[in-house]
């Protein structure tokens, strides 16, 4: 069985909070594309105590491969006129990157969200220079829809981002993998 066959998603437990908090607060783990400066270190624990990090507008699931926890995926609600869709993201530990685990985790998250929520659209965005994440999203079945100019402020500079989306019908039209 390969690493990718063992990738799974699960709710955050109290035992995950030190790892999760450390990942969110670590410039080294979040670098080079997701470090935006220091933020409230207690927010994750407070939100976990409130709703287990499974809220109606944003949520987090841990990414495991076998018995090893390698990161997390998240989603947040984007409201539009009379409807909403999800925007997803992923953060893996540096040693888990480049192995297809992020692609598989995002595929699992998409299937989960389409199975358990009525949305027809799931988006993801990534900095224009983040080529590995663009490849991961494309392998996960997302379609690149365009470039958003100067939407991310990181490291003293405004940066462009690529917008990706997958529609509910994209899953039914795609051959089984």
UniProtKB/TrEMBL annotation:
PROSITE patterns, per database record: GNAT
A GO molecular-function annotation: protein-N-terminal-alanine acetyltransferase activity
Gene3D superfamilies linked to this entry: 3.40.630.30
GO CC, any one term: cytoplasm
Pfam families: Acetyltransf_3
Residue span, N-acetyltransferase domain: 7-169
Record's protein name: Protein N-acetyltransferase, RimJ/RimL family
């Amino acid at each position: 069985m390969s690493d990718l066959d063992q990738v799974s998603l699960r709710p955050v437990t109290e035992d995950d909070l030190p790892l999760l908090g450390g990942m969110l607060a670590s410039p080294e783990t979040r670098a080079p594309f997701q470090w935006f400066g220091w933020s409230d270190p207690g927010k994750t624990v407070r939100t976990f105590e409130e709703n287990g990090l499974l809220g109606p507008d944003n949520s987090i699931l841990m990414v495991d491969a076998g018995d090893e926890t390698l990161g997390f995926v998240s989603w947040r609600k984007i409201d539009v006129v009379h409807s909403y869709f999800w925007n997803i993201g992923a953060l893996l530990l540096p040693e888990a990157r480049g192995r297809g685990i992020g692609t598989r985790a995002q595929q699992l998250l998409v299937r989960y969200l389409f199975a358990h929520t009525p949305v027809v659209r799931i988006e993801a965005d990534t900095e224009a220079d983040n080529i590995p994440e663009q490849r991961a999203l494309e392998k996960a079945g997302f379609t690149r829809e365009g470039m958003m100019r100067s939407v991310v402020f990181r490291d003293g500079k405004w940066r462009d981002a690529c917008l990706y989306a997958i529609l509910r019908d994209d899953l039914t039209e795609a051959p089984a993998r």
